[in-house]
Amino acid sequence: MKIEIDRQEKIVEIWLSNQEQQDVAAMKNLAEYYWKYQAEKYKVAVFFSGKRELRGLTEELLLHNRRVAAKAELAREELAREENQQIGMTMSM
Fold it and tell me: According to the lineage, what is the superkingdom (predicted)?
């Protein structure tokens, strides 16, 4: 278990490995830390390690984000073309 505390921002990050997630004592400690810092008005974030390979998942996420950004850009370009056509029709009247 790794705990990072930012006292200025009042944020606590708790990181658990896969092994710790299966450990009853570690999970009990997690709950104790969580409630301790909650009582002190800290924002507590708990991060659980995943079971899949990070590199492949990161690549998938980046590709997905690129596709979403490209679709949004195409939609903006199409909207701009339509607006320009409407302005052109208005000007020719």
Answer: Bacteria
Residues 4 and 36 in one domain: yes
pLDDT at 27: 92
Low-confidence residues of the chain: pLDDT under 50: none
The stretches of the chain forming alpha helices (DSSP H) are 18-22, 24-39, 54-92
Same domain, 64 and 87: yes
DSSP summary character for residue 7: T
Domain that residue 11 falls in = 1-51
The whole-number pLDDT of residue 37 equals: 96
> Does one domain contain both 71 and 84?
yes
Q: Given its phi and psi angles, is residue 10 left (phi above 0), alpha (psi -120 to 50 degrees) or beta?
A: left
